[in-house]
Amino acid sequence: MLKAGAQAGETVVDLGSGVGIDCFVAARLVGPTGKVIGVDMTDAMLERAHEFNQEVAAELGYNVVEFRKGVIEQLPVEDNSVDLVISNCVLNLSLHQDVVMKEIHRILRPGGRLVISDIVVDREVAEADRANEQLWAECYTGAIPVNKLVSTYESLGFLGLTQLDESTWEKVAGYHFGSITLRAYKLPSSKVSGCVYGGHAAIYLGPYASVKDEEDHDFVRFTPTEVCDATAARLRMAPYSDNFMVLDLPALAKAAPLSACGCAPGVVCPPAATTATAAPAASTGGCCDNQSSCCA
Ligand SMILES: C[S@@+](CC[C@H](N)C(=O)[O-])C[C@H]1O[C@@H](n2cnc3c(N)ncnc32)[C@H](O)[C@@H]1O
């Protein structure tokens, strides 16, 4: 839960909240202006969680935790209302993990994120092995391979996937099982909205010589690359914003290459503006602004 990095004032939902431990940690992090919703289908768990919540609220001096009875395949939570979805060791218990992921996407606000720890396996568990008692007892039958998990998230429109943690892997019945924590964001996607080129260039700030993003854009360090509106919006948000500078260049001629400083084609860059850190946005009146003396 601490790795999820809940911030003051955020709304957090915990899927399969059990007796509420992660909800109580989240309550401390979001503070009195935040909100935490635990969803679980088991009455006994919810009863204990309610009892603990009285004690936790008394200790914190505020109560921002609410437990709701429901299934994670049909979350009792409004659309686009949540900053952070967390879950620990629950998704693998669902027979409909793709439905759960769609539900997570529905309740997250644009820019919101999930941080989920779950059991994964090195290859698909064969149908015949699903009856194996040891696998069942250790909650391993529902584990899915990491690459399938990633492609399911990406096919639903989650981007910015990052692995935050990983446990030691264990060999059971010929399979290797482990637990990983993944973070992913609900972000604008050019694959979903299509590409409209409204005049934006992105500069990758390093540290690698070049990177390819999940939508197959190639970025060379310090080199302006024209991007469409959805990609520009995405690169301005976490988790990309620390590594990219996005310039608005309404006059950008689609077919023409950019100047070295990220200015519109034909603009002569002063030497100081040819590095990424020196290249200002057009609207700031810097080297890319036609009113600026350096561009005259
Ligand atoms: C292994 S416990 C994990 C509890 C808690 N997340 C933790 O880390 O302590 C699994 C919890 O998920 C709940 N659960 C399992 N499948 C569920 C589903 N489909 N919908 C809602 N809750 C579910 C169970 O009732 C149980 O409380």
Structural account:
The chain is an alpha/beta fold and 296 residues long. It folds into two domains: 2-186, 3-Layer(aba) Sandwich (Rossmann fold), CATH 3.40.50.150; 191-295, Ribosomal Protein L9, domain 1 (3-Layer(aba) Sandwich), CATH 3.40.5.100. It is 22% helix and 28% strand. The chain has helices spanning 21-30, 43-60, 97-107, 133-137, 146-155, 190-193, 229-235, and strands at 11-15, 35-40, 65-69, 82-88, 108-121, 144-145, 158-166, 170-172, 175-186, 200-204, 210-212, 218-220, 225-227, 244-248. Strands 1, 2, 3, 4, 5, 6, 7, 8 and 9 form a nine-stranded mixed beta sheet that branches. Strands 13-10-14 form a three-stranded antiparallel beta sheet. Residues 255-259, 263-269 and 273-296 have low confidence and may be disordered. S-adenosylmethionine (SAM) is lined by residues 16-18, 21, 40-42, 45, 71-73, 88-90, 93-94.
Protein traits:
296 residues; alpha/beta; Rossmann fold; Ribosomal Protein L9, domain 1; 9-stranded mixed beta sheet; 3-stranded antiparallel beta sheet; 7 helices; 22% helix; disordered C terminus; binds S-adenosylmethionine
